[in-house]
Every structure is written in C-alpha cells, then in structure tokens.
Amino acid sequence: MAELSDYSCFTISVAEHIAHLQFSRPQALNSMNKAFWLELPQAIRDIEMHSDARVIVVSSTGKHFSAGMDLGVFSDSKAVPMSGDPGRMGENLRRVVLQLQDSLSSLEKVRLPVLTAIQGGCIGGALDLVCASDMRYCTADSYFTIKETEIGMTADVGTLQRMPKLIPAGVVRELAYTGRKFLAAEALQLGFVNQVFDDQQQMLDGVMSIAAQIAQNSPLAVTGCKEMLNYSRDHSVEDSLKYMATWQAGMFRPTDLMKSFQAKATKQTAEYDDLFALKNLFED
Questions:
Q1: Domains in the chain and their CATH numbers?
Q2: pLDDT tops 50 at residue 267
Q3: Gene3D superfamilies this protein is in (predicted)?
C-alpha cells in the first residue's frame, strides 16, 4: 500500500480496510477554505488509488463539524474576477461553482461507501457535503442549517439537489426558505441521520463499528450496492432494473458467493479479495 499524501485540512489514516478522513482545523471551525475544496477530491482519490480501504469515515475535530464555506474562497480576484465584462464574469463564476460542486460530488462518485460523523454545527457548505455521503450520524448537540439563505444567496453546491431525495420536499423548502436550524432530534425523525449519539467519542466508536461491518462484506457486492442505489435515485424503476441486470451480467461472479458459503459452514469470517486499485494511466 502506497503512502498517502499529507493534507493541510485533513488527517487520513487507514486500518482494517477503513479509511478515516478527519477535518483538522478546529481553530478555524473547520471552515471550507480554498485548500479544502482542492484537497477533498484529491484525498478521496488518494484513498481509492493508494489504500486497501473498503469504506470511508469522514469526521471532524473541535466543537463543530464545520462552519461551512470560507468566504475567502470568493475574495481571490484571480479565481473570481470582480470587474470586467459581465458576461465573462458570469461564465467564470459558473465554472467556479461547478468546480466546488465536483469537489463534494467526489464523495458520491467514489466506489466506497462514505459515512459522515457530525458533531456541533454543520453549516452551509458542510451540509452540502454530508448530503453527498451515503449515511450520516450525529451527536445530540448537532444542528444543521442551510445558512446561505440567511446571508443573501442560494445554496449552490448540492443541498437543494440532494436533500429532497433524503427527506420530504416540503420540509426542505421550509429549511431553505427560512434558513432555520434543525436539531439532531428533528434530523433523526426526518430520517436525515441514521442515529444520534450522546457524545463525539460514542459516535466515532459506533460509526467505526458500522464501517467495520461494511468492510467485512465483499467489496464488489458493496460497491455494486452503491452504484445501483445512486443510479436508481435518479432514474425510473424500469431503467434501474435494466441497469441492474446489465451490471449483474458483467460483474457478478460466484467466487465471493462461494467464499461466503464456506465461511458460514465453518463459522469463520470470509476473506474477500480487494477491488483492483484505480490507476492513473499517466502514473508510473
């Protein structure tokens, strides 16, 4: 397994097929600065290409999960020109927003399940991020808010597109139009989070236990589940069933099935092969 890169906004560790990506700027409330948006997709690729991880846990440090977008991202005149032809300024800003969207979409596109463990505030862009994860868990003191509305803009990197697929659309509209906070208890009732824990350590222990259960399963079966669930979310039942049949015809092999049966017969844990690591065609 290759050495993972160092990042300024995260620490990454991999053990027992679980990658733990942890935000590491608590003094700045783990705000999403320019480096964050650049490093997140790189970190996800790093895990997928250079580790034996079968599941990713995203957590944070300090009092709050993340205060969301650092507005300094938009103060860089090289990235976001504030003068010149309005048409060209608009086209440039659109490209910037698309890059930000792609950064968070890396959590959705990665073959591995992504579990987010949230404490304290999950604000603005941080809510966009957790909406792109597979499952969400939080502490009892957590709260969530579509903060962008309150500061005079429309949330633009994923919450308004993904959240209506997770909780009732009328509730999303209320949260978006008002910008109000919704607390852990409401998030659990709505099904936005899977479970609420008393404190951060209990949450991390619980989420790591769930991640360990996922890591014990066939990684090919698990990535197939993620692929199908994401596809089915955005397509009709008929189209999704056809895609499932095509996937099964191409990807299903009896090897893992036989390993599973043998393990159950001998009351042991099955040992599955890892997925082939993704490779950059231009990397030695």
A1: 10-216 (3.90.226.10), 219-266 (1.10.12.10)
A2: yes
A3: 2-enoyl-CoA Hydratase, Chain A, domain 1, Lyase 2-enoyl-coa Hydratase, Chain A, domain 2
